[in-house]
Known about the structure:
- The chain has 142 residues and is of the alpha/beta class.
- 46% of the residues lie in helices and 18% in strands.
- It contains five helices and five strands; from the N terminus they run E-H-E-H-E-H-E-H-E-H.
- It has helices at residues 16-28, 39-48, 66-76, 93-102, 114-135, and strands spanning 8-12, 32-36, 53-57, 83-88, 106-109.
- Helix 3 links the parallel strand 3 and strand 4.
- The model has no long low-confidence stretch (mean pLDDT 94).
Amino acid sequence: MVTRENLRVYLAIKKADDRSHIEDTMVLDGIEVRTFGSASDLWRVFQEKPARLIITERRFVDDFSGLDLARQIREHHMLPYVYVVVLSTLSHLKEIKEGLVAGVDDYLVKPYNRFQLRTRVLVGMRWLNYIDSLYETKPSKQ
């Protein structure tokens, strides 16, 4: 069962101050967080030690975006399921649909508040527990 105590969150945010604020919120909630300055840095670490929940911005200065990250996760890490939240200033329906097609589970438009992000993490935990329950082997009744 995914709980606050055993949930590993990876966070890819460009600005150090923004990373720190989000990290502080998660840590105060008892969640283990590892931060990265880019989606490509997160992806390199993720391949060695996957997290169950990813929070990433959509755009970075290099050519590897948050949507690229979501695509790679969906292509290479189907189980256990990874919940992906993207934060973006791009708010047109077309841009949000692009995120969903890339494999994003949740898309928050900036500016957002801490309560919204905390809520999305709780929803992500609920989904992870539900999906995990579908793959648990249940003893047969005899």
